[in-house]
Amino acid sequence: MASQKAKKQVSSLPHMTQAAQEEKRRQLAYKELVQKKKPRPRYLRNVLVAFVVGGAIAVLGQLVLRFFMSRGLDLDAASAPTLAVMILVGVIATGLGIYDELGELAGAGAAVPITGFANTIVAAAMDYKREGWVLGMGAKMFLIAGPVIVYGTLAGVVVAFIKFMTSP
Amino acid sequence: MAAKKVGKSTVRFASPPIIVGTGTIAGPVEGKGPLAADFDVVLPDHAYGERTPERSETKILEQASRIAIERAKIEKSMVDYYIAGDLLNQVISAGFSARQLAIPYFGVYGACSTCAMSLALAGMVIDGGFADYVLVACSSHYQTAERQYRYPIELNIQRKTTSQYTVTGAGAALLASSGVGPKVTWATTGKVTDLGSKDINDMGGAMAPAAADTLLAHFDDTGRGPSDYDLILTGDLASFGSEMLRELVRDNGVELGDNYRDCGLMVFDTKSQRVGAGGSGCACSAVVTFGHVLKEMEKGTYRNVLLIATGALMSPLSFQQGESIPCIAHAVAIEA
Amino acid sequence: MTYLFAFLVGGAICAIGQLILDFTNLTPGHMLVLLTVAGAIAAGFDLYKPLLEFAGAGALTPVSGFGASIARGALAEAKRMGILGLFTGVFEYTGMGIAVAVFFGALVALIANPKA
Of B176, B208, B237, which residue is a domain's last? Predict the structure, then answer.
């Protein structure tokens, strides 16, 4: 069952005992078998649905952005309230129990828009409230959204710092 | 001298324990599946009138246990031991249900292999002469498992092709030293097997090597083969895992025919129900075996059944720390 | 016309996210972090502002726009008030959204329970 590739990879580990090498060989062979046989996702369908749903949410966002810009805000100033309204949309859709269905259907099409960001916060809040309002909901609300804020802030500060120091 | 031990890892019960009563409860999704009519109770929803899904799981485990005792037409006080387990941290569903049942209790953890594991242990306790009645039970719950192992319920997550759906339900069986019913005749205890899989979305693929290991050990120890059983049943390998099991045992010269089935594929209609590759969880093998298979044995459809329940022994913590997924499988033979 | 561009750009960013999910073993959390950081870096190369003007919400509402908004906010404040602005500016455009998510998220959690 061990293929050529698997054997080659193992022989590069001479310090291992015979038994450990045999075990490693079995592992590699099985990994190969799994990779070969595992049913593939429906790539095209998934990408198309993600594209259409994500695009539709962006159009909804554009309606909101237009509304604020028609009230005399410039693009920068209208960004904040637009994000806020879209987040509110995500919050409500989650509360109604439809956003997880949308996620099952559209994958990244539901996860990537800012409405999906809102969904991660509300879903965690609704779920963990049963472990208490403080240590449950309070502590775990940002379980999934937290990394986005943390790495967004880290990257944002570094990028802005470099830009700030290099621009005249 | 272990007189009842056969081969490396199998025991043959000299006076096989008899399954004299069962109780099965299934959740709302399982209740729309092909085996709905075989369950004693089908829940209207996941909450079942409880404040938290964990309480709901405890409740169904306790109720399934009480149904099994009732069916056996004995008093609860006559039960010598209660052997139970589930998927949650510190096996709380089993422990909490034992608090209500007030029967001397062994809490066990075998992940989704708990059903076969507790049957084997109960068999040893009874055949060893330590008890006349042993109640075995296990449970799992879609919402409690999602919360512990994956994500909050309402999160937008798309299932992978190999993702499985945790069965909500509980199954209990009362084993007795005498009586009428199917007998547990052999038990093969699995070794922990780990072929290095780290894919949390593919439990079936991770567990298949453990199932193959135990199945081959069982055939080795007993001198039996696939044709000696009308039904070889794995716990929750689902579609991909059972395909891998067939591949793995084929490499060792064993061909599994039409008599091989998987509980995870029986409990749901994987085509019309959105459950990914099939069911999983302790309750998966328990409700299918105790609810469906034993009823079919009573009707005479099957006479010899081998149940191999598989379990993945990782935790969210070990997974996040980059460890691979150690798996186990236990086999028990049930004969009419 | 912007509506069409919003649809195309917003959809394309989601499609990239889907490709990451389907072709790698990364979890949705990793994918979101990756896109956020990519957005922040794009903002650093002055790529995001033109995209924003071109596609409006198509560039703003995906999580990459969230990362870009953090970087743009930090830079705008730094230019206005010096180096400390890097830190006061990070939530300039995004803070309102986070506050809305926390406030209304808690409110929804108060009244709604997980169903599925």
Answer: B176
